[in-house]
Amino acid sequence: MPEIKINTNGPYVISADDLVLVASDGSPIELPQGSAVALCRCGQSNMKPFCDGTHKDCGFEHDPTA
User: Fold this and answer.
1) pLDDT tens, 47-58?
2) In the chain, where the domains are located
3) What is the pLDDT of residue 41?
4) Which of 5, 13, 17, 38 is found 20 to 30 A from 64 (Cα to Cα)?
5) CA of 15: how far to CAs of 25, 58, 60, in Å?
6) How far apart are CA 63 and CA 54, in angstroms?
7) How many angstroms separate the first and last alpha carbons of the chain?
8) What backbone torsions phi and psi does residue 58 show, to the nearest 5 degrees?
9) Alpha-carbon torsion, ordered 61, 64, 65, 66, to 10 deg
10) Blockwise average pLDDT, block size 10, the chain, 66 residues
């Protein structure tokens, strides 16, 4: 079962087991099974939708706790 971890000031980290990620045009995005992927939340990644660590340089801040 996929699991999503929301990192404070960082990406969403999602286990790739049984996960299907779909692009805006409806085509599937290949994911490595048995590992995790990090999805960008800051909007500045050069590898969108994946995180490339740019959030550290651009000052992205978000505390996911309520």
Assistant:
1) 999 999 999 999
2) 1-55
3) 93
4) 17
5) 23, 26, 23
6) 17
7) 25
8) -90, -5
9) 100
10) 86 85 90 82 93 93 76
